[in-house]
Amino acid sequence: MRPLRALKALAEEITIMLQEGVVAEAADIDLCMIVGGGWPFHLGSITPHLRQHGYL
């Protein structure tokens, strides 16, 4: 159950960053999550993953 809460929290933070203009587009967050956050490259980027599972 905890991974689901983590994904929901990530989706909320991504939404806030996009709405407030902290980042220009979702691709910026995707790159940061892969390069700096350790998101597994083979899973693709975070925003499509969250959209696929209904979080975004």
Unreliable spans are none
Helix percentage: 55-70%
Helix-strand topology string: HHH
Mean pLDDT: 89
Question: Which radius of gyration do the C-alpha atoms yield?
Answer: 11 Å
The largest pleated sheet is described as: none
Between the first and last Cα atoms, what is the distance in angstroms? 18 Å
Oligomer: single chain
- The tally of domains stands at 1
Global morphology: globular
Q: How many distinct beta strands?
A: 0
The class by helix and strand makeup works out as mainly alpha
Q: Report the total helices.
A: 3
Q: Could you tell me the strand content as a percent range?
A: under 5%
List keywords for this structure.
single chain; 56 residues; mainly alpha
How would you concisely characterize the structure shown here?
This protein is mainly alpha-helical. The chain has three helices and no strands.
How would you explain this protein's 3D organization?
The protein is mostly helical. The chain has one domain (2-52). The protein has three helices and no strands. The two termini are 18 Å apart.
Summarize the SSE layout with pairings:
Layout: H1 2-19, H2 26-35, H3 46-52
